[in-house]
Amino acid sequence: MTKKITLRRPDDWHLHVRDDAVLKAVLPYTAEHFARAIIMPNLTPPVVRYQEATSYRARIKSIATATGWPSFEPLMTLYLTETSDPKNVRSGFESEAVVAAKLYPAGATTNSDAGVQKIEKIYPVLETMQEMGMPLLIHGEVVDSSIDIFDREAAFIERTLIKLVDRFPELPIVLEHITTVDGVDFVRGASNKVAATITPHHLVINRNAMLVGGIQPHYYCLPVAKRESHRAALVQAAVSGSRKFFLGTDSAPHTLDSKESSCGCAGIFNVPVALSVLAHIFEAADALDKLEGFCSVNGAEFYRLPLNEDSLTLVKSDTPVPFSDLIFTENGEIKVFDPMFDLYWSIEEQIR
Ligand code: DOR
Ligand code: ZN
């Protein structure tokens, strides 16, 4: 018997779509499944002022419309720097040009060089954000070279996040793409102002995927996947039904040449398979009834946005469903995340 599950249409609360040729190639994969997505601002140059977010949004909308998904809603974010202007952040949020701002510790990840070195420097912006209830999205890793890369999330929580939450208790905070039991425990124990996104790939891979049998650049992302016990804790959090955890794919396209290189980029492009992978994971945990909360409800409630009205149906086949391994862009091919198990769940044909 065919198994089906119908969800309120999902949203993606953490997404990289880039710009120009790559944007054109990747956006339809998101717009076909997701109603809205939080768009990361780490372009070069980064999206710092709300006026830049507005023109980036127009570019995204125009591609969404041209590819047949005019109702897709990009939710824009600002990239915080030590010279971010609180007045500009205020105008951006109040005019609904942007919904959140992203804190990248300088040097932590792709295009983060313009990020923040001394967190105190952005306190005036954080005061403004707290006053308005504007979410702060955090790449939670320290960049201290003396800290082992596998400990960088835990060290960030210990050294920075605990103090930040204490100093700004009313500020909505999303700890993005958590990868550790430390992240899960911190978020669980914090107030309801603190939530976390979890990616499909961190629910599937541990660090062996990246390092066993040769270096596997397509499983390299930041924060890096950790040991198995951490992955298991992430699955427990995702399927728990807790409203503090929701989907952020962190789908981050890089062309093959930039991944398969002596200095390969961090990022996993997972959007084409994201919902199929999640259905697999939730089913394996006997928690398909929690999938809708994770993908379609918890994030919207945290951001205080309305829930989507329409729906999407996932169907389970008796035989594995084929997915493309690569997508093509004018800049080169991009590899789609391979979860290393067969996928049986796919999205039922949608009537437009
Ligand atoms: O793996 C990642 N890729 N992590 C990030 O934080 C950034 C992202 C990207 O932009 O490629
Ligand atoms: Zn990201």
Polypeptide structure, described:
It is a single chain. By secondary structure, this protein is of the alpha/beta class. 34% of the residues lie in helices and 16% in strands. The strands form three sheets. Strands 2-3-4-5-6-7-8-9 form an eight-stranded parallel beta sheet. Strands 1-10-13 form a three-stranded antiparallel beta sheet, covered by helices on one side. Strands 11-12 form a two-stranded antiparallel sheet. α6 links the parallel β7 and β8 (194-198). The longest helix has 17 residues, at 50-66. Bound molecules: (4S)-2,6-dioxohexahydropyrimidine-4-carboxylic acid and zinc ion (ZN). (4S)-2,6-dioxohexahydropyrimidine-4-carboxylic acid (DOR) binds at residues 16, 42, 109-110, 139, 221-222, 252, 266-267.
Question: Which class best fits the helix and strand makeup?
Answer: alpha/beta
Strand order across the largest sheet: 2-3-4-5-6-7-8-9
Characterize the biggest β-sheet: 8 strands, parallel
Beta content: 15-25%
**Estimated helix fraction:** 25-40%
H/E element order: EEHEHEHEHEHEHEHHHEHHHEEEE
Instruction: Compute the number of strand runs.
Output: 13
Query: What is the first-to-last residue Cα distance?
Result: 27 Å
DSSP helical segment count: 12
Oligomeric state of the chains present here? single chain
Shape: globular
Radius of gyration: 19 Å
The molecules bound to the chains, other than polymers, are: (4S)-2,6-dioxohexahydropyrimidine-4-carboxylic acid, zinc ion
Q: Give the averaged pLDDT, no decimals.
A: 97
